[in-house]
Amino acid sequence: MPHLSLEYTSNLTNLNVNRFLHELNRVLVDSGQFEEIDIKSRAVRFDDFLIGLSPEQRAFVHLKLSIMSGRTMETKRELSGRLLERLRELCESDVGLHVQLCVEVLEIERESYSKSVITS
Amino acid sequence: MPHLSLEYTSNLTNLNVNRFLHELNRVLVDSGQFEEIDIKSRAVRFDDFLIGLSPEQRAFVHLKLSIMSGRTMETKRELSGRLLERLRELCESDVGLHVQLCVEVLEIERESYSKSVITS
Amino acid sequence: MPHLSLEYTSNLTNLNVNRFLHELNRVLVDSGQFEEIDIKSRAVRFDDFLIGLSPEQRAFVHLKLSIMSGRTMETKRELSGRLLERLRELCESDVGLHVQLCVEVLEIERESYSKSVITS
Questions:
Q1: What share of chain C is helix, strand, coil (3-state, %, to 5)?
Q2: CB nearest to C25's CB, from B48, B50, B62
Q3: What is the arithmetic mean of pLDDT over B39-46?
Q4: Strand order in the sheet with A3-9
Q5: Which of B9, C5, C72 is nearest to A111 (CA)?
Q6: Model ipTM value
Q7: In this complex, which of B46, B97, B102 lies closest to C115 when CB atoms are compared?
Q8: So what's the pLDDT on residue C22?
Q9: Distance (Å, rounded) from C-alpha B20 to C-alpha B101?
């Protein structure tokens, strides 16, 4: 915890995944809410997608941040807002694309969450 | 919002992803609950899966609909039921397959959700 | 229901997906909480990921168990703990990797969940 999931449509051909993950993790580190090593981020590209029903060129990025339950709404809003702000700066829209950027905050149930670390 | 995720096992070789996404989005548009352009749908195929422990030919489709919190249970049930109905009609089971179809409705926390649109 | 999702970073090259799914499903069957055929498990490998900001060799496994709402916290904790225990036994860490293992329990809203079975 936290877990970050960067989900995006494959027509965003300018999206540099490694850079995005680095910059978004940086936002989380800078928030002071998390230990650096605990931030586990991944990207998922959707090759099959459909936005509405129209043949127009549309794309989306859906960022999901899962954090332990118990944080205040103010903290969650702030994290969500900062991630969206960074996402906006990072996104150089492809010519002719209509891109929806979304940030969702999910809560992990603390009492049933288990974790362990293996080092070799 | 809404976000739709069509997740399915790769042994469903007759599943036409583009058609499914179009038909499911159509159900959401026709419900009158959402703006057409807001419906963001994606498909995810699982090449690695296991249903129970048996070597039998089994498959599943797991449809996840994420909508903003605040809608009534009646509305959520209706959306879930309609999507399942359409899914049933669309699925032509492969010979010999036992297919489980599931529709789950998830709520997005409205207060911490952020969104922005980029057009170029 | 239940749905199990085994998500892992692609640098875990020793991870045998089929064996993991079988062993984790076995844990769920042995718990006595579920019908064998209802256990729908899938694996997702992340080729693009970043843990924190450091260039160190880090990996993670994120196991998500989605069950119907209504079970006691004790049951959820027990399921989570047993899955983590099995995961630990299964994971033979690659040399030099720091691996975080996480098990999250999610609740599916019972009232809006729809299901159907097709057999051919």
A1: 30, 40, 30
A2: B50
A3: 98
A4: B114-119, A98-108, A58-68, A3-9, A40-46, C49-51
A5: C72
A6: 0.96
A7: B102
A8: 98
A9: 13
Instruction: Identify the DSSP state of A48.
Output: S
| Residue C32 in tokens | 């006595």
Distance between CA atoms of residues C73 and C45, nearest Å: 29
Best A1, A38, A40 residue to mutate vs chain C (most C CBs within 10 Å): A40
Q: What's the average model confidence in pLDDT over B27-56? A: 96
Q: Does B39 touch chain C (CB under 8 A)?
A: no
Give, rounded to a whole angstrom, the gap between the first and last alpha carbons of chain A. Answer: 21
**C-beta atoms surrounding B102 within 10 Å:** 24
Q: Which two tokens stand for residue B42?
A: 């994606």
At C93, is the pLDDT very low, low, confident or very high (cuts 50, 70, 90)?
low
Task: Give me the residues paired with residue A63 across strands.
Answer: A6, A103
Question: Residue C37 pLDDT > 90, yes or no?
Answer: yes
Bridge partners, residue B15, by sequence:
none
Shortest Cα distance, chain C CAs vs residue B101, angstroms = 5
pLDDT at A32 over 70: yes
| Phi, psi of A14, rounded to the nearest 5 degrees | -90, -5
Nearest chain A alpha carbon to B119: A98
Question: What type of residue is C17?
Answer: V
Over residues A36-91, the pLDDT tens digits come to: 999 999 999 999 999 999 877 999 999 999 999 999 999 999 999 999 999 999 99
